[in-house]
């Protein structure tokens, strides 16, 4: 067992971890840090998922970093393009050398006496146990389990004679050419996968229990490409970024304020792209309000084009059982298939799957309030990056990293190596962490942290409000407690206390 010490230890070399490293290098140049990555490559989600057509469901002018312009023509980018962008960023800013690959973090223990975390890690294929110590622990490993996706317990699944695959574990040997494919699910993964598979499959059927809101937009941002021709890259990127942020926020607020009108407009947009007489009410009219779940992005209307051409179809029904030939539905219809793809979602996890202890006590995230969307009540020197549910992930990741740098610099300036959010206001009540009705959030309600009814415990889900709070708000706000380590009690101290 070896030991390494750094000021800041980051989990994850995906989009969040690379961004965090950039901010630390720029704004906290005296702080040492390392990134521990469980896999052997950078990229996180964008390297893990390999299913056909894998792409962003946000534009790259907001999913990209604030500090590095996106220069490609397509705003809705495929995974290889995003990976190229991340690799270039890691090299350009000297971050790759800070990454230690094949390091799987298992346990983190905080000592108030030493003002540091001890991080237990399994290294390499042999899972050699190594330890690190750090003053600040920064979790940037995402929000879902890499080792497993979510697949319901489908009756009769073992009877099916073809292949069943979850998109999270797609491999190169999966053959869909000239095959009948059923994709179970109607979320972002299904909507990405179906148009791509439909190019070569005999036919693709999207089987859904209930419809999802979908919105089509061009894969290229014409204004962004025009600006880039006439302005410096950073200026053009910055203008496009805040244009897209502002428009996204405007449409979200309008949908929340006028849900009926928003729903009608979204459904009318779908009708415009499907053949006359298509049953949009059955297949594309959800029972919930827009933004109760995340909208599915359809770049250049590719999903609707596949349906219009007859290469894909939608069935809205419930599964009764798998059969030897496919899936029997509650209606009695049987969908025959050679390949079934279960695009049924993710398994959420908290603390990046790490066991967290504070002075020997194991911490349950569900017992904690989330502070400013970044830290947790009564957990010292630990932050976690969690993106927005209603906007691009990286917008919040950038703001989180910037705030952590401000916090670290304040601690250095004041000589207080410990920072702990404390909830002492009796008027603050607990609320669910997010109000999304998406299945993957609902399944994880019991493990997720809570938010509070008042700031700074209440999540904004608003980049403009977070910019004010995280970028400019006071670090010493009366809620964050700054302290120094307390020396261990001596025998004399214990004797005095006993008297």
Describe, in plain words, how this protein is organized in 3D.
The chain is of the alpha/beta class. Helices cover 30% and strands 24% of the residues. It folds into two domains: 3-146 and 347-483, 3-Layer(bba) Sandwich (FAD/NAD(P)-binding domain); 153-344, FAD/NAD(P)-binding domain, CATH 3.50.50. α6 packs antiparallel against α7, α7 packs across α8 (259-271) and α11 (393-414) runs parallel beside α13 (463-472). The longest helix has 25 residues, at 233-257. The mean pLDDT is 92.
What is this entry, summarized?
With 499 residues, the protein is an alpha/beta fold.
Structural class: alpha/beta
Which range best describes the helical content: under 10%, 10-25%, 25-40%, 40-55%, 55-70% or over 70%? 25-40%
| CATH topology group of the largest domain | FAD/NAD(P)-binding domain
Q: What fraction of the residues are assigned to beta strands by DSSP? A: 15-25%
Number of domains: 2
Termini gap: 42 Å
Name the descriptors.
499 residues; alpha/beta; FAD/NAD(P)-binding domain; 2 domains; nine-stranded mixed sheet; five-stranded parallel sheet
Please give the structural blueprint.
Blueprint: E1 3-11, H1 15-27, E2 33-36, H2 45-48, H3 60-63, H4 79-92, E3 99-100, E4 103-111, E5 116-123, E6 128-139, E7 144-149, E8 163-165, E9 180-184, H5 188-197, E10 203-208, E11 214-217, H6 222-230, H7 233-257, H8 259-271, H9 280-283, E12 296-299, H10 302-308, E13 312-316, E14 319-322, E15 326-329, E16 334-336, E17 339-342, E18 346-348, E19 355-358, E20 361-362, E21 370-371, E22 375-376, E23 382-384, H11 393-414, E24 418-421, E25 430-432, H12 439-443, E26 450-452, H13 463-472, E27 480-483, H14 491-498
Parallel strand pairs: 1-2, 1-6, 2-3, 4-19, 6-23, 8-17, 9-10, 9-17, 10-13, 11-12
Antiparallel strand pairs: 4-5, 5-6, 7-18, 14-15, 15-16, 19-20, 21-22, 24-27, 25-26
């Amino acid at each position: 067992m070896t030991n390494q010490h750094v000021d800041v230890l980051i989990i994850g070399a995906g989009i969040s971890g690379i961004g965090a490293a950039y901010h630390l290098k720029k704004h906290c140049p005296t702080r040492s840090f390392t990134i521990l990555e469980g896999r052997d490559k950078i990229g996180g989600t964008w390297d893990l998922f390999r299913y056909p057509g894998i792409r962003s469901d946000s534009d790259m002018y907001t999913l990209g970093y604030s500090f590095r312009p996106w220069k490609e023509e397509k705003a809705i980018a495929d995974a290889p393009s995003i990976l190229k962008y991340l690799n270039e960023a890691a090299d350009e800013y000297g971050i790759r050398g800070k990454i230690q690959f094949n390091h799987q973090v298992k346990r983190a223990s905080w000592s108030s006496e030493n003002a540091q975390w001890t991080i237990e890690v399994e290294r390499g294929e042999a899972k050699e146990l190594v330890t690190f110590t750090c003053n600040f622990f920064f979790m940037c490993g995402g929000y879902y389990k890499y080792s497993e996706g979510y697949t319901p317990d489908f009756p009769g699944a073992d009877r099916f004679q073809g292949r069943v695959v979850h998109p999270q574990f797609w491999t190169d040997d999966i053959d869909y050419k000239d095959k009948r494919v059923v994709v179970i699910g109607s979320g972002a993964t299904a909507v990405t996968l179906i148009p791509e598979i439909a190019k070569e499959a005999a036919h693709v059927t999207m089987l859904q229990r209930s419809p999802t809101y979908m919105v089509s937009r061009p894969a290229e941002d014409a204004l962004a490409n025009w600006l880039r021709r006439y302005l410096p890259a950073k200026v053009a990127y910055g203008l496009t970024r805040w244009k897209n942020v502002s428009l996204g926020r405007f449409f979200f607020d309008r949908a929340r304020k006028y849900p009926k009108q928003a729903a009608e407009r979204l459904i009318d947009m779908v009708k415009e792209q499907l053949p006359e007489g298509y049953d949009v009410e059955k297949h594309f009219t959800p029972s919930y309000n827009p933004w109760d779940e995340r909208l599915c992005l359809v770049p250049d209307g590719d999903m609707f084009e596949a349906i219009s051409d007859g290469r894909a179809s939608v069935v809205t029904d419930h599964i009764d059982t798998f059969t030897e030939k496919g899936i029997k539905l509650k209606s009695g219809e049987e969908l025959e298939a050679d390949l079934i793809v279960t695009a049924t979602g993710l398994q959420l996890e908290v603390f990046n799957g790490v066991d967290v202890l504070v002075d020997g006590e194991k911490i349950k995230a569900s017992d904690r309030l989330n502070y400013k969307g970044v830290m947790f009540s009564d957990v010292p020197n630990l932050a976690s990056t969690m993106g927005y549910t209603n906007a691009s992930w990286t917008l919040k990741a950038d703001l989180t990293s910037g705030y952590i740098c401000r916090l670290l610099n304040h601690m250095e300036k004041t000589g207080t190596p410990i920072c702990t959010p404390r909830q002492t206001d009796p008027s603050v009540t607990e609320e669910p962490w997010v109000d999304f009705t998406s299945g993957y959030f609902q399944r994880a309600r019991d493990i997720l942290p809570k938010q509070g009814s008042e700031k700074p415990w209440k999540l904004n889900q608003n980049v403009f409000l977070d910019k004010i709070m995280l970028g400019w708000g006071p670090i010493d706000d009366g809620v964050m407690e700054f302290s120094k380590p307390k020396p261990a009690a001596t025998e004399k101290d214990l004797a005095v206390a006993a008297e």
